[in-house]
Design a protein that fits this description.
The chain has a single domain, classed as TIM Barrel (Alpha-Beta Barrel). Helix content is 36%, strand content 13%. The N and C termini lie far apart (46 Å).
Length: 338
């Protein structure tokens, strides 16, 4: 791993927190898709590449992902890392084991800290918007967690622009910093561009984007009419509905292949091109990558620092805009108590 170019760094929104612009996430991998030895190897590869930002959530593997990450990062200098986690999804069968009530948040932060083997997280995120809990109750609970030193900053994931604006106003009143939004964003999924990004730019909130490779579709490995490559995400029985929806679109898969010569002309892989594309957005503070093998981490971090010219961005737009999703209404949170 010694030949890996170190990743570059950015501020998280307008905060003073500096994070790696490539963040390592373990949504589908740790505790489920990947054995622990491989997961630890991927974390070590991330550290070797200069990645300091690690994103997880309590619901990933029902706590298993946090536990694996905690063990993988044990022994690292805590001040040199930025560890992010989230709360919202059901973590048990009880009526209060979900959502953003004060009861669930206060229990969840302590459980997450125990699993992660740390006294605090750098960023604690609301994993979706809870329509069943008053927002001021949620934000007061987050404020108490920050003031207790259990989290430094607060963020949200998949919230609409109006919800982010209301939460930011409450955060200011409560003397805490709402610094981040974590949406799905890629050259194929651009629903945040119309409303969320302008709102966040105004409020000093940065995007930490997930699925920048569109569940691997933007790597070009999925071809219409051909079986998915062995071991790919699409072959996993736990594969998300996101990747399946992309794979069912023939025109989309064909247009993704138009990126191959663009990437080759730049000396990039298609994955590196896709990551570089999201990082051209000035409101994006980091792109989250996942990995099942250390080599994937080493490959992906080479997107860090890449600057795409206007002509390249135009070529990507011409290739993918006809099949990309732009509907701002697609940013939606389900009812966790349903």
């Amino acid at each position: 791993m010694g030949n890996v170019e170190p990743v570059e760094y950015r501020h998280l929104g307008r905060s003073g927190l500096i994070i790696s612009e490539i963040a390592y996430g373990n949504w589908i991998t740790h505790g489920s898709q990947v054995e622990e030895d491989a997961a630890v190897a991927c974390v070590n590869a991330a550290l070797d590449a200069g990645i300091t930002t690690f994103d997880t959530a309590d619901v990933y593997g029902r706590g298993a992902a946090e536990e694996v990450l905690g063990r993988a990062l044990a022994g690292q200098r805590r001040d040199g890392l930025e560890i992010f986690t989230k709360v919202y999804w059901p973590m048990g069968d009880g009526k209060n084991d979900r959502g953003l009530s004060r009861k669930h948040i206060m229990a969840s932060i302590d459980d997450s800290l125990r699993r992660l083997q740390t006294d605090y997280v750098d960023l604690y995120q609301a994993h979706r918007y809870d329509y069943q809990t008053p927002l001021d109750e949620t934000m007061q609970a987050f404020a108490d967690i920050v003031h207790a030193g259990k989290a430094h900053y607060i963020g949200v994931s998949e919230w609409k622009a109006s919800q982010i604006r209301e939460a930011a106003a409450l955060a200011k009143d409560l003397n805490i910093q709402l610094v981040s939004s974590q949406p799905q964003y890629s050259a194929l999924w651009r629903v945040i561009e119309a409303e969320v990004v302008p709102t966040c730019e105004e409020l000093g909130i940065g995007q930490i984007v997930w699925s920048p490779l569109a569940q691997g579709v933007l790597t070009g490995k999925y071809l219409h009419g051909q079986p998915a490559p062995a071991g790919s995400r699409a072959t996993d029985p736990n594969s998300s509905h996101f990747v399946q929806s992309f794979l069912n679109n023939q025109e989309l898969l064909e247009r993704v292949q138009l990126l191959k010569p663009i990437a080759e002309d730049l000396g990039l892989t298609m994955a590196q091109l896709a990551l570089a594309w999201v990082l051209q957005n000035g409101n994006v503070s980091a792109a989250i990558i996942g990995a099942t093998r250390p080599e994937q981490v080493a490959d992906n971090v080479k997107a860090s620092g890449v600057k795409l010219t206007t002509d390249v961005l135009k070529a990507i737009e011409e290739a993918l805009a006809p099949v990309a999703e732009f509907d701002a209404g697609k940013t939606e949170s389900p009812n966790p108590r349903a």
